[in-house]
Known about the structure:
CATH class of the largest domain: Mainly Beta
CATH architecture of the largest domain: Sandwich
Shape: elongated
Number of domains: 2
Order of helices and strands: HEEEEEEEEEEEEEEEEEHEEHEEHE
Largest sheet: 18 strands, mixed
Structural class: alpha+beta
Amino acid sequence: MKHLIAVISLTLFACGLARGAPPAVVDGLQMPAWVERYGFLQPLAPGMELRQHDVVRTGRNARVLLKLAEGSLVRLGENGQLKLSSLNEKDDGKSVFRAAFEVLRGAFRFTTDRLAKPRQRDLQVKIASISAGVRGTDLWGKAAEDRDVLCLIEGSIRVGREGAAEFEMNDPLTFYIAPRGAAPEPVQPVPLAKLAQWAQETDLAPGQGAVQRGGKWKLVLAEAPDQGPALDVYLKARTAGYGASIDFTGKAPRQRYVVSIGPIAEEAGAQALAERLAAELGITKPQVVK
Length: 290
């Protein structure tokens, strides 16, 4: 029964991918991470297409890197929730790029592609209690338990908060804090050390098993002649937010079912991921291969 439920949920999820070009694609991630769509949770994997109304979720020590159709990058840190409230379903590279994101929890960063041709953008970002109309090219924010933070790295943004007047942030490397249940703090310059610390909260970290398009390594979780044991490992990993795949090789009676995660950017990261899965999920002797 659990195998049938998995097939049904994957089929419903795939139906949402059949219409038009993808407005957003998963470029890389540190697992565990999921996308919520149509009430189903599915683990993220490199190359997965996302659409408006999807909610991206991350677990402990996780990161997600998304690439939008017009080239911009969106990052989400650990224990985060990001709703893709609105996205251009089709992007011709010439019209105004429109998008709206809602950061429900965790750290977030939006960065434009410096090499892309300049174009108009209508980008709205809501970070819990803070709303921002973005005309900038680089911003960082976080919805924390005790406060919301918005940092302008480059460009300009129009900032609003419920019950307060809107204002402009035009000075790069400045930030704004809105504590829960208290008046917001004045906009102030951000120390470079603090900015570097914040950036680490959303960047893919080396040596942590980041799965990314173009990676050359993979982690084999299980290999079995029978479908049942392989499916058990596959479902255990995916339920925990690790986007495993299952492949069939060979011919009967020598067929093999192989469950793996990849592509992984670094060998050291693949080994770290193997150790984590062995400890967290009890997977026996996962193997790093190229």
